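dude i think i finally got it to work??
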Amino acid sequence: MNSRVVTKQMLIDLDISLGTINNSPLIAQLEQDRNASGDTKPKECRAEAERVIRALRKISPDATRGKGNIDLSEEKPTDYWLGVIWALADLQWQCGKAIARKWSQGSDRYTEDGFEAAWNSYNPDHHNPISIRSVFKLAEKFGHSVADTSTNISAIPDPTTSPLAILNKFSLTGSSAEMKKQMLADVFAMEGIAILGQWTTLYAAPNTGKTLLALWLLEEQITAGILDGGKVFYVNADDTYRGAVHKIELAEKWKMHMLVPGHNGFKASLIPAFMEKLAEAGEARGVVLVLDTLKKFTDLMDKTAATAFGVTAREFIAAGGTLICLAHTNKHKDADGKGIYSGTSDIVDDSDCMFVIDKLSTEGNDVSKVHTVEFTNKKARGDVSSTAMYTYVKRTGEPYSALLSSVKRIGGADLDAVKKNVERVILLAQDNEIIRAISSCISKGVVTKSELIKAAMTEADASKTRVKNVLERWTGDKYEEGQRWAYKAGEHNKFSYSLTTPPSKS
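look at this
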């Protein structure tokens, strides 16, 4: 039979939640067990816990998140919530987390996931960590006096003393009607790809066309009247000056906002704060924020940074915002030859929807090339496409607007034809060395099957089975379908091979 272990930490957390810290035997025990280790932090004991609680009673948890510091130069600081959380974490008390949670629950914006992410983002090895002294000084700015000896933990902020009453407080039953008013219609910011009111992340290798396709998909919805261009903010943080100018011209045409770091005083680092402020001000609803590329806004290789970004992003989404992030795959492919997202898994875990974009084929010459790409869904919350395929044509010397106009969505019968063509292109590339060897042998007059296979084996340094399969796979007179040689039966039923002629370019 399985049994659930009740730890000392669980009991301490319950004492904090119920307001029984004054009579907690566990806190009293900790007070006795602690010894002077040279640490300048206040020791975990009843008196010190009460002192922290009294200070927190004067500090509103309805502050903006901030960056983990407390600016005491301001007369009435406002950006301090994360600073308070980290200062309590810095104490390394067993009851510290429970005190921090109880205080944070005084805000209507409190979420357990958000609190956990903030608490876990504290770095105990920081060279200049924030301390509880900053919290005491902050409390003084809001009228706290050391003469205040009240220690009623329930004032932070829940007056109930019953565990059942606390559970009842957390219940959302009865609020569905109000919450339903805040729901966005299930429509697409990008057709089949990104749903309004969700966080969608698109991963692709460099030069796959993710920016091009993102802009094309946005234009499609703006032109159709589904999106309000005035509420779409595309942050172009990964482009050349010339490239940015071309895309600004398009944004002007669509009446969409284009933000570029380094211009008009804008910095990429401002985005998380703006997401938070939009949520707090009730202005996030209907706003579509596109970040290109995500690595400019957070450190994807750092779990703490990615987690902190995710917390802010979720607040923005919960308030009705839409977030679309473009990010890179790493250099390695999976077993199917598909791209793999780069960085920690936190962004994928926090996103509502995730696609990987792969370039399937590139056909053409130095002047004009047709690129075929495929979106493959890896995570979905909603009725998005499992796959989507697009082509675009890149011609030398043409403007970006022409490249954008060349984009086509592939579907229906065309989709099957494109897939077959892509498969053919891939196979031709895989068989290329042996195709060249067989073609060379035919051009030298080796035209019977047995002799041709033997000669090509030597020239390509390949097995008999491999050469035979390639010979049979590309036999026929339809050059445009990949067929490179044809045969006719001669005397004694011997096959005689000849090269297939490419179609005229005229």
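The domain at 431-499 is CATH 1.10.10 (Arc Repressor Mutant, subunit A).
im so relieved honestly
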